[in-house]
Amino acid sequence: MKNKFFEVYQDSHWLKLLFLLMLFITSSSIALAQEKTKIFVIFSYLPGSWTIEAATGIKKAFKEHNVDIELEEYVYDYIYVQKNHAQTREINKTLNAIKKYGPQLIIVFDDEAADALMPYLKKGPIPVVVTGINKEIENISWAETDKRNFVIVFERYPFEQSLRMLHMMNPQIKYISILTSSNNSSRIIAHQFIKKFQSYHNIYAGIAIEHITISSSWSVWQGRIKKYKGLDRAFWILVPWNINDSAGNEVDIRQIGKFYNEHSLLPSLGIVNINQKLGFLASFYVTSEDLGYQSALMAIKILTQNVHPSMIPFQTINVARFLINKDKSEPPCKAGS
């Protein structure tokens, strides 16, 4: 009797242990299945509409592909670096933040952060997707293609489509002038447009390039906007950010828009979605949401299909948006225009 009781007790004891073991394994499996993929996103500028839309695009792509992520957003403050000559300090700060977070993948937005950080990140074990790059591949010092741990999404704007549309909306226009700020991205984009014009012998869709103004001085912008007139002319305003007044303060985009609408008699094209603030005739633009979405698709391929970044070709943004402002299709004609 004693032996039977002991056997029953012993069997019961082992059943309990087996049950606890199965419960532990099940719980561990569930926890593992629910573990989020850690993505570290680095922006070149302080939070604003650009960063918000970028994060939206990234999250959207991962959600559509049923990949649960934890997104850590970080700013490599390019403007602060330039003003305070703090590049080394900011680079070290960023690298330490990456090490502390321990991501499975890094996404870097824009040339400014990429140029500073990729010489270091390209040597590491963490795959990187670099997006919003305006530079040409031959001008990127860190873009070696051998055994690379990164992929690139280039940011490009539709040159030919813009001019064809402008000609269709107003066949009188024969000349166009470029007006843009002088930050790094602005200069790169402006020179790409100039190079495009030159490839067509400086005329396309019956429109020739006339003046090119690359300046971050608000007084220079005011002068160009007021001075440039003519029924056969148009503006191409590339980048209206980082325009500074005489005190060195950045001029609010709404102030630029107010001045532009009060003093410009010309239709203008833009490459940013700010028609509501500047009143362009039309905008051909690339959004950070689209850049974020496309970069996330690359990231998903790397993370879920175990594809090495070196096996993925560099890409150009595959979505460009168009917004027309019909109220500006026939600019007012005044004396002297």
Give a verbal description of the structure.
By secondary structure, the chain is α/β, with parallel strands linked by helices. It folds into two domains: 37-156 and 288-306, Response regulator (Rossmann fold, 3-Layer(aba) Sandwich), CATH 3.40.50.2300; 159-285 and 322-328, Response regulator (Rossmann fold), CATH 3.40.50.2300. 45% of the residues lie in helices and 19% in strands. It is built from eleven helices and 13 strands. The strands form two sheets. It has a seven-stranded mixed β-sheet. Mean pLDDT is 85; it is low at 26-33 and 332-337.
What would you say the CATH architecture of the largest domain is? Answer: 3-Layer(aba) Sandwich
Number of domains: 2
What is the fold named in CATH at topology level of the largest domain?
Answer: Rossmann fold
Low-pLDDT parts are 26-33, 332-337
Radius of gyration from the alpha-carbon trace, in angstroms: 27 Å
- The order of strands across the largest sheet is 7-8-6-9-10-11-13
| Biggest sheet statistics | 7 strands, mixed
- How far is the first residue's CA from the last residue's CA? 115 Å
Helix count from the secondary structure assignment: 11
- CATH class of the largest domain reads Alpha Beta
Content-based structural category: alpha/beta
Large-scale geometry:
globular
Query: CATH superfamily name of the largest domain?
Result: Response regulator
Helix content: 40-55%
Measured by DSSP, the beta-strand proportion falls in 15-25%
Quaternary state, please? single chain
Give average pLDDT, whole number: 85
Give the tally of β-strands: 13
Helix and strand sequence = HEHEHHEHEEHEHEEHEHEHEHEE
